[in-house]
Amino acid sequence: MAPGPQLESFDYIVVGAGSAGCVLANRLTASSRHRVLLLEAGGRDSNIWIHIPLGYGKLFNDARVNWLYSTEPEPDMNNRTLIQPRGKVLGGSSSINGLLYIRGQAEDFDHWRQLGNAGWSFEDVLPYFRRAEDQERGADALHGTGGPLAVSDVSEPHPLCEAFIEAAQQAGFPRNDDFNGPSQEGAGYFQLTARNGRRCTTAVGYLRQAKRRPNLAVVTDALASRILFDGRRAIGVEYRVGDTARVAHAGCEVIVAGGAFNSPQLLQLSGLGPAALLQSHGIPVIADMPGVGADLQDHLQVRMQYRCTEPITMNDVINSWRRRIGAGLRYILSRKGLLTIGAGYAGGFFRTHAGATTPDVQVHLIIFSGDSSGAALHPFPGFIASVCQLRPESRGFVHIKSADPTMPPAIQPRYLSSAFDCDTVVAGMKLLRGIMRQPAMRRYIAEERAPTPDCMSDADLLAFARATGSTVFHPTSTCRMGQDAAAVVDERLRVRGIERLRVVDASIMPTVVSGNTNAAAVMIGEKGADMISQDAKASAAVRLSA
Ligand SMILES: Cc1cc2nc3c(=O)[nH]c(=O)nc-3n(C[C@H](O)[C@H](O)[C@H](O)COP(=O)(O)OP(=O)(O)OC[C@H]3O[C@@H](n4cnc5c(N)ncnc54)[C@H](O)[C@@H]3O)c2cc1C
Fold this sequence. Notes:
Elements: E1 9-15, H1 19-29, E2 36-39, H2 48-51, H3 56-59, E3 69-70, E4 83-84, H4 106-114, H5 122-132, E5 133-135, E6 149-151, H6 159-170, E7 186-189, E8 194-195, E9 198-199, H7 202-210, E10 216-219, E11 222-230, E12 233-241, E13 244-256, H8 259-269, E14 272-273, H9 275-280, E15 287-288, E16 300-308, H10 314-318, H11 321-334, E17 346-350, E18 361-366, E19 382-389, E20 397-399, E21 410-412, H12 419-436, H13 439-442, E22 445-450, H14 458-468, E23 470-471, E24 501-503, H15 518-545
Parallel strand pairs: 1-2, 1-13, 2-10, 5-6, 13-24, 14-15
Antiparallel strand pairs: 3-4, 7-17, 8-9, 11-12, 12-13, 16-19, 16-22, 16-23, 17-18, 18-19, 20-21
The structure holds flavin-adenine dinucleotide.
């Protein structure tokens, strides 16, 4: 996979082959006009569990495909350090995520536009969502077909999901068969980034096709350690493959797509970040940018665990070798059944109070149970319903702890550090309980295991959230797009005050979207690639007319 020496000079260098990076690599090489180098710190996506949706659970703790980050002790979460998995493999986090395809609310993007980011209203970004999508249900005004990202329905209904949707209706919420349709509100099944029971990562959807092009070089196991500058102009990237240091030059641009933790880390290692932080690690400051690594946002989820009255959960399949073999055979023969499910099967988006104009919490119904994300499944029938606040106010940070690029950065989301977030999470737990106690769902609940029924007051519920809450894996906004002095990139994703350098990934979101973040990261990759190509054409035209 290593490029020959003649390839060490490129037009574009993309750092990170994740959700956004693979999109960029595909789109920027499509015209054959530009030579692109794609650097990925992880390896090839040959692990079979990447491609089987249920394999998600196997990749949680697998250092071969996962950075396995964790937070610093979280002051408002009983000083616990919380896991932060991130994909480290072709496809990035799209190769290890829960596959749920949710774009967020139209209002999220309209808000980005209202913050001054021209070109990012829902009307502006919808064409990029549609361009990316290959929607199994067909195309309409809101959905696309023929794109690289396969989106499909779950292979079959499940009695617990049916009961949950009915219970939500009994609690007064609508059924919603399309969370990416005109309204997000209500309960229904999730759609997945999958095709024929196989996961569709961006490496599968975008990169496989592009890899055949002679103008794309992909180097795996390549850790970008520093962006190289001539003054304030990015001119290349220093990277390591094993113990060998290499340098690649970029004639047009360097594009950082390392994700919400690694993109700010690489900028800081390269001299862009809070000056005092960089100086404390002996890194020469190219630009004092306090916003790099600031504004970390993430969705906190609180998982409510139930013992089920019937052996219909995944626990029952995984804990029985007979049923495991049956599920395996069914998958091989028909691509249906338990191996095709993602992190959530059904769920919903709800408003916790009448004043909310759009849903402010999301529920994931997970048809298995364990004590924590990635832990062994319980030896009895069980399931989980988790609640997460969609638009948290809490803000954290990502800061390097060392000038050594192989050392993980300090990650501190500061979950539940805002009173508003505490109130919303508690209201969400109460709302979820209200659904779970409806007749349709009650017949499946043998025991409310956690929180137990005596955990009742707001203070009790908040204490439960602080003691057990964890990430739902949606960190964003650490290289935030904006027009204010602390913003890291402008509306064309160019790093402010620096030439020929962009950040294009989930880290640029001004605010986290109201839903799962992969679809938006892919959209950012699509839009970013379009802007880069437009800008290249514009500067070529200027050169010609000069
Ligand atoms: C366990 C888990 C479950 C999730 N579930 C869902 C879900 O169900 N639905 C959903 O929509 N979203 C989900 N997400 C979130 C979603 O996958 C991410 O928001 C999205 O993939 C982020 O895309 P990105 O391009 O910003 O970064 P990533 O996809 O993380 O890509 C960054 C890439 O850059 C590489 N890289 C980083 N630093 C360097 C460097 N210095 N040199 C070279 N390469 C580098 C990384 O190895 C990685 O491949 C989940 C995430 C996780 C981790």
